[in-house]
Amino acid sequence: MARTRYAPDRGLTTRMVTTMFFIGLLYVVFVGVLLALVRGAWPLILILAGGLFVAQFWFSDRIAAYSMGAREVTPEQAPELHGAVDRLCALADMPKPRVAIADTDVPNAFATGRNQRSALVCATTGLLRRLEPDELEGVLAHELSHVAHRDVAVMTIASFLGVLAGMMTRVALWGGLTRGGSRDNNTAIAVLLIPLVSAVVYAISFLLTRLLSRYRELSADRAAALLTGRPSALAAALTKVTGQMARIPTRDLRKAEPYNAFWFAPALSGGSMSRLLSSHPTLEQRIDQLGRISAQLGQAGRG
């Protein structure tokens, strides 16, 4: 973690290293299985695997920001948003990221980027309309914590493994079929096994990123509350944002749902998800943690 005034979190660091290790291992195993099953297409698979890995590392943050409708804004276009980010970056002693707005009524925010120099923090128009200044600063402090702890980079890269697995599966099947022919027994086996392996890779990577995502949200809440010294403002923002989600049209929520791992609060268009599949801890868990931090800060102040 780069040196900032955000409270360090060794538990988060350990989980990020573990997640990236297993994600990388999955990637290597998946490529190896493709090479074994579709031998005739190995040059194409190696070139695609290498190219997609580089693209995943360098462009996944931009793809995520574009997919969520982020539009970079200048201080003249969004003075209040830039002012809040300026104050928090000065307080945290960290470089200022790029600032963006997403034109959607879904009240939310996210951060993305490989590192602090390439980071981007985005708030939606729905969030800016609904929150008070101190609540907005709490949300932005939460998102800047993701940048400072670098967990946003891990999530951005890891979340695209399933997409890569699907793309490589299609190419491998196409390459194997065109080289082996439909009557080849090995090709028939490959046609059955490759989609299965791809599905397993996606499922494992999905669960790994969900486990990390839930912990990193609690970590960001804690770091933001300690940095600003106002856990109650962040708790109020969480309560307001979560409560407003029910009033957002289902169509808009469904557009935001695929990117829940990046959002400040999950956009849910249906019923409640199981805790295993959820990208965020429950609202009660987050509020309880902020309540404990508020009590600790109050005791420290009296001391």
From TrEMBL:
Family, similarity comment: Belongs to the peptidase M48B family.
Subcellular location(s) per record: Cell membrane
UniProt KW keywords: Cell membrane, Hydrolase, Membrane, Metal-binding, Metalloprotease, Protease, Transmembrane, Transmembrane helix, Zinc
EC class (word): hydrolase
PANTHER family: PROTEASE HTPX, PROTEASE HTPX HOMOLOG
Organism of derivation: Streptomyces coffeae
One Gene Ontology molecular-function label: metallopeptidase activity
Protein name, per record: Protease HtpX homolog
Binding residues annotated for Zn(2+), in chain numbering: 142, 146, 217
Annotated transmembrane regions: 12-35, 41-59, 152-175, 187-208
InterPro entries: HtpX_protease, Pept_M48_protease_HtpX, Peptidase_M48
Main location: membrane
Location of the Peptidase M48 domain: 76-291
Cofactor note: Binds 1 zinc ion per subunit.
NCBIfam families, per the entry: PRK02391.1 (NF002669)
Active site: 143
Pfam families referenced in this protein's UniProt entry, alphabetically: Peptidase_M48
